[in-house]
Specification:
- The protein has about 450 residues and is of the alpha/beta class.
- It folds into two domains: about 260 residues, 3-Layer(aba) Sandwich (Aspartate Aminotransferase, domain 2), CATH 3.40.640; about 120 residues, Aspartate Aminotransferase, domain 1 (Alpha-Beta Complex), CATH 3.90.1150.10.
- The chain has 14 helices and 19 strands.
- Helix 12 packs parallel to helix 14 and helix 13 packs across helix 14.
- The longest helix has 22 residues.
- The protein is globular, with a radius of gyration of 23 Å.
- The chain binds pyridoxal-5'-phosphate.
- The site of pyridoxal-5'-phosphate has 13 residues, from helix 6.
- The site of pyridoxal-5'-phosphate (PLP) has 13 residues, from helix 6.
């Protein structure tokens, strides 16, 4: 029997639905959308560039669109794999394996550090992978419900992951769920040390001592885990010091507390597959990935130590969580990074941009701090290097000016307090990992001229 389904529409017909929009459709869409979006419409993407609809202007994107498209937009190898898989089998429900799913699990566990060897994936991204990690921790430590996360952290926008994240006071208009199970400890943010110390390596890790004290004596319930972005992303690109991570790891092991990492933004972007490599072999019990790992398709991954018991089928599943397209795209992503030696390029371009920025810092007091590693670059702007007043306006103007020069820079998430403090002063440079030296120079030139313009506006 021939099961081949026939095409119902011509190419032209389909393209007439998705290929063009009228001015009227553009103007009226905002009234029909529950969420706001920018006026800018992107037509297409190619390597590190986005093309604007109607104007055909090209922009070099140093945000990789939410730090995801690490091997470039519309990567042709990903396009081939996804279209092949789409034509072969477009979807299966969660309980089923497919060839790409099996290949994916073997590939990712060939790259994981230490004994992180058990995997679950989803098609919803980072927040879902983190919720899965918390569920897994609770399954493996029965009766323990209490989690600790960090000030200035971000772990997602669901009702549960918002309670794990920093409080965006004045930004969200409701309270997340699960706050009774989460408490915050201070992130080791050395440029603005929460303990008033002088900076990295000029202290006795007083912030860690405080965290340990709070956990040991302040917990209302049995402690299950500590969730941490070892290098904070949305909170301003802040790497925790290596000795902090080392000491905390020893302590969590001793106290049998799960150490869970959120590597959503970090996987490959820091010039290593996994953040453990940056932290000289320190490995968490469970880690979570999203963004780049999906090769531009939606994907979240939870990876646990091999001795950790997995889920039953009621505890981790979702409608699209076994979608074979994302596994196909992810396979291409990982192989592409290897074949094109992109981790090396990431380290080289990252070191180059960062060292040039450090030279620039000598000439501009407004550059308070420069943070990396790899192509996870953050520049903290301040109005005054002594008081470190956040240069929020400076950062916003710089990003706007660069946009006029067709380079897209990112900004940290807005962190505000009830007392009226606002931090949105870290400019982010996170282009696809394929950028060349010439593009790095261009990024630096635009950064400097935009900074100068922003200073002029002050
Ligand atoms: C560090 C970090 N964790 C978690 C998330 C949440 O991921 P998602 O939006 O895919 O749920 C993000 C997203 O920006 C993130 O940057």
């Amino acid at each position: 029997m021939d099961h081949k389904q026939k095409r119902l529409f011509s190419d032209e017909e389909i393209l007439s639905w998705i290929g063009e929009v009228t001015d009227q459709e553009i103007n009226e869409v905002h009234q029909k959308s529950l969420v706001p979006f920018y006026d800018q419409i992107w037509e297409s993407g190619d390597s590190s560039y986005l093309k604007q609809y109607k104007t055909d202007k090209e922009f070099l994107d140093c945000t990789s669109q939410a730090w995801t498209s690490n091997i470039g937009f519309s990567n042709p190898d990903v396009a081939f794999a996804v279209s092949h898989q789409l034509k072969t089998l477009s979807h299966v429900r969660y309980g089923f394996a497919t060839k790409p799913r099996i290949k994916f699990i073997h590939k990712i566990t060939s790259l994981t550090p230490g004994n992180l060897k058990k995997v679950a994936a989803n098609a919803m991204g980072g927040g879902a992978s983190i919720e899965a990690a918390l569920r897994l921790a609770m399954i493996n430590k029965p009766g323990a419900q209490q989690f600790y996360t960090y000030t200035r952290s971000y772990h997602g926008s669901s009702l549960a992951t918002m309670s794990l994240s920093t409080r965006f006071a004045g930004v969200t208009r409701f309270k997340p769920w699960g706050l009774d199970r989460v408490a915050k400890i201070p992130f080791p943010y050395c440029y603005r040390c929460p303990m008033g110390q002088e900076g990295e390596n000029k202290c006795n890790l007083e912030c860690l001592e405080l965290a340990q004290n709070l956990i040991e004596y302040g917990s209302v319930d049995k402690v299950c885990g500590i969730l941490m972005e070892p290098i904070q992303g949305p909170g301003g690109h802040v790497p925790a010091p290596k000795r902090y991570i080392r000491e905390l790891r020893k302590w969590t092991e001793k106290n049998e507390i799960f150490f869970i990492w959120d590597e959503s933004q970090l996987f490959t972007r820091i010039g290593h597959w996994f953040t453990s490599e940056y932290y000289e072999g320190v490995t968490p019990d469970i880690t979570c990935l999203t963004k780049a790992i999906g090769g531009s398709l939606p994907m979240g991954v939870t990876i646990a130590r091999e001795d950790i018991n997995g889920f039953n089928s009621a505890e981790e599943h979702s409608t699209f969580g076994a979608n074979p397209l994302m596994f196909a795209a992810s396979m291409v992503f990982m192989n592409y990074v290897e074949r094109a030696d992109l981790l090396k390029n990431t380290r080289e371009q990252g070191d180059y941009i960062t060292s040039k920025l450090r030279n620039l810092q000598k000439r501009y007091d407004y550059i308070g701090d420069i943070r990396c590693p790899g192509l996870m670059i953050g520049i903290e702007l301040v109005n005054d290097p002594e008081t470190k007043t956040p240069g929020n306006t400076l950062a916003a103007d710089l990003v706007e000016e660069a946009m006029d020069q067709r380079v897209i820079f990112g900004l940290m998430a807005p962190i505000s307090t009830d007392s009226g403090k606002l931090f949105r002063n870290v400019v982010k440079i996170k282009p696809p990992l394929i950028i060349t030296r010439e593009e790095s120079d261009h990024i630096l030139n635009v950064f400097e001229s935009s900074l100068e313009e922003a200073i002029d506006y002050l």
